[in-house]
Each structure stands twice: as C-alpha cells, then as structure tokens.
Amino acid sequence: MLIDMREKKVYERPLLKSIESSMPGKAGMPASVSVVSEIDGVSLKLLASKNGTPLFVFSEMQIRSNIRKARQAFLTRYKSVAFAWSYKTNYLSSICRLFHEEGSWAEVVSGMEYQKAIDNGCDPTKIIFNGAAKSEADLIRAVQNDSLVHIDNSRELCLLVSIAKAQNRKARVAVRVNMDVGTYPRWDRFGFNYENGSAWQAIAQVMKEECLELVGLHCHVGTFILSTDIYRKATHKMADLACRIEREYTHSLSYIDMGGGFASKNTLKGSYENGAELAPSMDEYAEAITSVLMNTPFPSRQMPMLILETGRALIDDAGYLLSSVLTTKRLADGRSNVVIDAGVNLLFTSFWYNHKVSVVQAPTTCIEETRLTGPLCMNIDVLRDRVSLPLLNPGQMLLFHYVGAYNVTQWMQFIEYRPSIVMIKEKGEVKTIRRPEDYDYVTALEE
Amino acid sequence: MKEALNLFLKSIVYSYSAIFFSRSRWFGILLLSLTMLYPAQGVCGLFCCMMVNSMSIMLNLNKYKIETGLYGFNAVLVGIALGAFFTYDALLIALIFALSVLVLLLTIAMDGWLQKYGLPFLAFPFLFCLWLVLLVFQQTDGYVDVNVFPMTTQHALSIGAFSVESVEGLSFCQYLPQPILFYLKSLGYVFFQSDILSGTLLMLALLCFSRIAFCSTFLGFVMAYFCYGWFEFDIFHIPFMYFGFNFIFTSLALGGCYLVPSKSTYAWILLLIPAQYLVVFSSTRLLSYFMLPTFSLTFCLVSVLFLYLMKRREVLTSPYFSYFLEATPEDNIYYHSVNKERFDYLNYYPFSLPFMGEWKVTQAYDGEYTHQGLWRHALDFQLEIDGAVYKDDGYMLTDYYCYGKPVIAVSSGSIVDLRNNVVDNPIGQKNVEQNWGNYVLIKHTDTLYSLVAHLKTDSVRYKIGDTVRKGDVLGLCGNSGLSPYPHLHFQFQSSSYVGAPTLEYKLSSYFCKNELNLSHPVSAGIPKDNDIVSNMIFDSAMADRYKFIVGNRMTAYSDKFGEETWEVCMQYGYNYLYCHQTGAKAWYAYREEDFCFQRYEGEKRSNLFYFFLSNYRVYFVSEKYQLEEKYPLTLKANTPLGWIQDICSPVFFFMDYNYRVDSMDGGVLRTKWIKKICKKEISNVSFETVYQSNQIKNVKVSDKQSVWNIQINK
User: Average pLDDT, stretch A34-42?
Assistant: First the structure.
C-alpha cells in the first residue's frame, strides 16, 4: 500500500483494546482490511467529490469481461448458446444495452420490463417472457410481437390459446418445468412439475394446440446454487423431456433454457467460507450443463440451442456502493457502531449477504470489530453486524463490493432520496446513468 | 399455342443477336432491320431462319437453345448468303428449303459433337452449307451472281487486289483512315452487304450493345491490319478486306463473349493474329483447288481450338470463362469481378473450424515457429481472454483457457488414424519423439484429410474406422507432443500418413473479429496470425424469413413505384424473384448460412430492384456483424462516365458500388449502397429491413432526396 505523503494524515482516535494472546482459531489470523481507492483507474475521492455519496458505481469493463468470459466458457463447449439478460437483476437501461451489445437476449417478467427491453432496442423475437403472473394485456402484446412466452401455469396456457386464436397467429411458447434436483427448499411454485407428470401434460396440451408452437423448455432450479451437480441433474431431466418430445411428436425443440442461479462472489450470511472462493467458476457451471447436453442422444441429432438467464454472476462484481461515514458511536456492549449514509433502503441484498467492505483511505494501524448501520431511523437498518474495520471518522468513505445485482432494482425510496448511479466507461470516462432523486420526483405523482 | 408463338418470335429475334453472341432483344431487332437494307437478302435470311426455328420447335429440340437463337443464327447467315449469290427465281426458293434442312442437320450434329467438350459450334454449319452449295453451282454460269458479292474466290483472284474506292459511293469515306474504313466495310460483310453505311450502322449498334465488344473487335482488326505487311504472301495477293472480318469475330468471341475480358484476353487477341494469318492463307490455298472461298473458317477454327486450349488448363487463372454466354461482355466482366470473391466458397468443400467458440490464431501459415517447409500450411489456435491465454501465473496446464476444451470434426468423414496415449507435457517442455502427440486424422474425400494434434491424453473417444459428422467432438485440446504450451494444431493434407506434407485449403463460413471487436463473415478463407475466429452459429428464425417457396407470390407496395407482384420462380435449378409488372428478375441463392442475390435483370425503377439492393447478402446469424461487398457495376446508369468505365474495365476500375451491412439491431437490418468514384464516396442510399415474426415486412429506403417504404406482404 502506497501512502501519499503529501496527504494529510488521518486522525486516529484513542482506543482501548484487550490483548488476545490465545492461539489463532482455525479461521486463521483476523481478516485484514482491504483498501480500494480507485475503480478502473478512476479515483473514488474524485467520484465522491463530483457526485456526492452515497453513490452506485458500475464498471463497464467488468461487465463486458464477465459476459465475454461466460460466453467463452459456454460457447467453447457447446455450439449454440444464447445468454438472456435477466432484467430484474438490474434493469438500468445503460446496463441492459451493454448486455445487448454483447449479444444477450432479454429475459423479462413483467409488462414494464418488456417495454424496457423493447426501448433498449432488443429484437422482440429475442425477448423471453417469464413470470408467474403475466397479465392478459402483456400476453397479447408478446404474442403480437412474436416474443417467446414461457408458460407458467394452466390458466396462462388457456389464455395464450385464446389470444393466439384471436390474432390468428402461431404463438411461440416454452413450458417452464420445475423438478427435484436435491435443493432445499424445492422451487416448485413456478411452472409444471417434472416428477408428477404435470410438465408432460402441459407439453402434450401445447403440442395439441394448433395455434401454439412449442419452441423450448425452461427450468430454473434455484438461486445462488453453489453445486454444479444440481445443474447436471437438471440438464439430464430437461434433455430427457426434449428427447421424449422428439420421439413422441417428431418435433425438435429450438432451445433448452436452463435459467440462471449461478452464484456470484458474494458471501451468504451464515456461510463459513468466503463466497469469492466458494462459488464455482463459470467454466465449472458450463462443463456441468454442456457435457450432459453433448452426451444426450437427441433422436434427430439436432442439438437444441442452450439459453442461460444468469444475472447475478454477470453483474454483481461490476457494481459498487460508495458511502460516507456520518458519525460513530459506542453501543451499550462497547462495540463500535458506525453510521453511514447508505442503508438497507439502498442495499437490499444486505439482508442475505455479508457484503465485502473496503475503506477508501489508507487504514490506520488499529482494527476494530464494527457494526455498520445506515441512516434510516429503523432498527433493521444494519448493513454489517460485525465487520473488522479501522477506526473510522466522519467523512471517511467505505466501498461496498458485489452490489451490482438486485440492489438498484429492489432499492426503496424510503426516508431518503435514492442517489445517482454512475458508470465508468471503458476509457475511464465517468457517465451518470441515473440522476439522483429530488423532492419533485418523490412528490410528482401525489395529488 | 400462344407459348409456341412466343417461343418462335423470340427465337427469330435472338437468332439475329446470337450472330454477335448476344441475347438482347433490341440488338436482334436492329440487326434484323439492318439485313433489310438489302431486301432480297434480308428476306432470304429471315425466311431461312423461320424455317429452321419452326422445324426445331416442331421437333421438340432443346427449348432453351431454340429460344436463345443458337439453332437459328447459322440459318440467318446461310439465307442471306443465298440471297446474295443467287438470282431470284424458283430455284432459289427450292434451295432455301433444301438448305434449311441441311443447316438444321449440320447445326444439331455440330452441337452434339462439340458440346461434349463444352465448346461452341460457331459458324461451322454455315460454312459447310455454303461450301456445299458453291461446290454444286459455282461451275454453272449464270446462277451465282458474283456481282452482288465480290468475294468468291474467282472474283477475288480475278480482280487481284481489291480496291475500296471502286465500290465506294459515299464521299466522306475518303477522309477516313483506311483501317477504320476497312473495319466498317468488314462489319458490313458479315451480312454480305458491301457498303459503308451498313457497316457504320452495325458499328453503332455494336457500340450501344457493348463498349468492350466494340473496343476488342476494333483493336483486333486494326492490329491485324497493321500486321498485314509482315504476313503478306505475294503468291495470292489476297486483299485484307477478303478475310478481315475473321479478326473481328475472333476478337469478339475471345475478348468478351466466351472469356471474361481482361488484360490477358487482349494479349491473346494479339498473340493469335499470326496464327490466324497462317490459317487464312493455308485454307485459301487448300480451298482454291475446289474454287471455294475460306469465309469465316479461320475464326471458327482458331476460336474453338483456343477455347479448347483454355479448358485444358489445370489451374484456372485469367482469362476466366464467362458466366453468362448471352450477356454482354460488360455483364461478364462486372459480374466476374464481384463473383470471384462473393462465390469463392463454391470452389471449396465446406470445412468449419475445428472448435467451438472464439479462438485466436497463434501461428498461421508460414509461421515463425514450426509451420515451415512442407508443413507450412498449418494453423495453431489458443483461447484468449482480455489479451491473455492463461489465468493466474500459467504454470499449470489448467491455467490455459484452451486446455480441455472440445475439438470437433471440421466435416464428416472417417477416422483413418489416431493416437490417444501420449502424456501431456508439463508447461514449457516438448516431446520431440512423438511430436504430433495425440491426434485424429480424418479422411473427408479421397484427397482431402484433416488432422488435429496435441490433444489431451485419453480424450479421444473414437477408434480407427469410425465415421464422424461435422461438429462431433473428437477429443479435448491438450499439450501432448511438440507442444510446450496447450494449443490446438490443425492442418489439411492430401494423404493418409501422419507427417505428410500439408495442403493449402480454405475454410468456410466463419467469423473473424477485427480490432474494434466487430465480426466479419468470411465465406471462404484462411485465418491469419492473431485473427480471432469462430464458426458461424446459424439462426433458423432469420433463415425462415428468407425461405421463399417456389410458386409463392408476394406483393410489394411503395408510393414511388406502386404495387408489384413478385413470384418465386425456378429455372434450371436456380431461383429468382419475378416481377409481374416489370418483367424484372432477381436471381438469388439460399444456403444454410445466408441468402444472397446473385444477379438482377430488367427494370431498375422498381421495388424489386431496391429489394435486391437492400438484401444483397444476409447472413442467418444472430451475432452482430459488419460486411462489405461489391455490387456488379452493371447497376450503373448509362452515362458517359459509365461508358468510360466500360472501356477501361478490362484494365482497371475507378467506379465502385459497395454494399455494406452496418448492423442488425432490434430486429432491423441496416444496409447501405455506397457509390464511389476513385475510392471517394459520392453518394449513398441506406436501407432498413424490418421483419415481423417470420417474414420480411418493410424496407425503408432513404437517399439524399427522399425517404420511402416498400411494404412486402406474403
């Protein structure tokens, strides 16, 4: 760590700490503090001075690198692969457009997301419409635009038949399948079950309907799945269904959509190991899924395209949240409590992750177990319950890592305004991709 | 009945144009009217032509050959010759009937004999017919009217040197240089007309028909004229006028009609002059024993022999054979200049790259490490991310991105040799004893084998004798043999031995990325050093939009050209869109990889023409790509600048019409027609093709003046 000598030294407040002289535990020595003062060569201090904090920062370079690595992992193992960008993970238009530029399709789960995909210039025939609650109006539109509708339930199937008949079109559909692959809890609320035969029933129903064209099968076995074996099992079952369709109907599917659920580098709460080391690499996921497909004897010898809807694993490490310390205080048990300007209103995922936190300035020599709380006047507003950080002073900045997924879609306008989001472009240029909210924005819809 | 009549009329017109190897309606009609300058001869020619064509139709001979005038053009010439030689009486009519049958017999016989060799029969039937007639009648005084045609042997020999001035009536002719004068007269003699007016008219018609045809005939003729001095043998005193038209026709046949005009065809035209002189003089001498003139024997013989010579070449270089026999030399040169690259893939058996995904060429042909000498035509590939071929510190095999990735068969074939048990080298070490390491050698055809080498130990799942299909996984990329770092070695060879010399051969249908990370489709090519290449992955949804079924009709409406009905037609295995309103045809090809227009004939002020321009070639892929191809310059308007380009075209091009695919975004295909002069863009028209589900919906055309839409409905 290089310390700029010209910089004013950080004041270190006095601290009393008991000396721990016992043997190191099996987790080794206490964690060291990571210091990050720039992203892609752009100084965080400069970013904060221009845009204020809290501030979401996205790295274009990281996004492109992620999707390219993922594409390479799959495309060097299987001939035809498409990634469909999961809009709900992060539907900032600038980010979606990056993915579309890199060849991703769109995977949407609502009329709003659908509209966004269209506005982002996505070819309507390359929009996958998922979800358990599609409205009739949404379905009408999707069928009109020849988008791919993934059927979730029988009511939707009936609705699609009547819509397609009314429009005198052949709607392109896929059946969403859920299955037992050994995960707990089982994700059986979406789609039709494989084991109890309702998936096959739905397929038979679709094949019977003149106005529906079964183009694919879809499954999504869970989220943040750390075992590649689960994908191996799921792919087996999906390939089995596809083969059965070929045998019984002499109909080849265009694609098999294996959904997403790949883990990111985040550490789940309660996880003993560090997430960045625990998560399988994209290559391992790819090997699991493609090896099953490559070894499946499809009767027609036509390999269906493989579609992946992974979101989290592609965007989580490209997003950062920059935040400033507002004040520090001691809790009743003597623990240090640091109040920062970003709370759970911005970092929704802190409910289930222990986000990695870095300091922006050079650390002081002392490290203290700290509780990080946000600005909300709510008891739940805790970002990290226990994290080893240097002695922080008001005004100092912290950087939260792996926050690219779900936060800027699930964040709340609650008590505070939502801050601006910037993207560091490939050449180091900083672009605001969402402006901060203000009073007018918040009250605009009120009577 | 109507169809037969249509065929008959076409055959008549094209019989005239076929004399000049053309299939142009107006040129045919013009020539027909030119023959009527000497009405008696003209009527005889027309009558003879009608006889032969009607007999051909009744006998159900090949319709295409009848229609294009191939069976009729000798008849025209024979008829005109009869009209020129004979006085008009019952005998002449009887003769025409007799000769019509004879010329048909000879035409079909010559055609049957020569087409086996892919050669034209030219004017041989005419020659033989005329000789037969002359053999019968030349001794009988009073029948052959030598005054009309001053070129029979007796006449030529009796008057000695032929003087132009004696038959010249037009005064301006004396100001013309002699070669030009002779050129005009020789053209006239094609129809047995001996005045300068018909020659001049014919020259103008020829010029309008084709600038290149005019230039090459003129060049051939004038060069021959100037060479006359060197070859003149005093024994006969045969005047140049007597055989000069042979040079015109040889130049026309070889300098634009049967071969694509180029510098080399011009060189051959000059090189063939001495040989032609020899044939002229020797044949004249030989035929003089029978009192027969040599007519066009020289042209027929030399042209056919030369074309045969061209066919015997083992490696095809310039001069190339023409694509379309009945087109103009301009069509041939412009289409050839474009098609050489556009359809190069047709010359190769389609091989894909031996892997999936995007790989980098780390050693290409004539590489600096090992691809040298007999093994220079080989390719090495590695995987790369963010500029590095390995992750971490690269000391482990598994650090290399390419290690363990599947290697696939480039085409179907049978495995003739393989090895699977060589142990992978640690990083940095080589195994020189088993330098190919683990490999698979596949036989695709009797003389085409492909080899992948340095595979991972025990990764090959096949045994010798197994057949594989394109895309089957042969094994995994490894580090066995002469391989210090994991990479894939790939080569073609022509024999089944490992270590055999490599073969240069093009790969088909792959993408190559440029510095801007944009993919360029390569229909046939050899990857170069540092290229990032990947197989094309086809998008069947895109392919469906261009699947036109023969017999289907669609309508195209635009404010500019109104409504048109396009029908999907097929002729001789080739597809085209036919516009019912304008009669225009847009020929196209549909493959697994792409849809492309090959040729456009007919009215250019039509929706079909703009559709042709906007969808000149479309690849069926979902990946974004950029493509630049050339349109044939036949699309250019008839302007003075265009005529200059025509004249220069065998030597160089200064006009360029480029087609560019800019992007495929949100289901809209953006293409451009860029007009360039001396490499500088002067104007462009851009197109946006919009699709709706599985069909083409709309083409938006925008140029400088206006923006308009063509709506297409199936």
Answer: 92
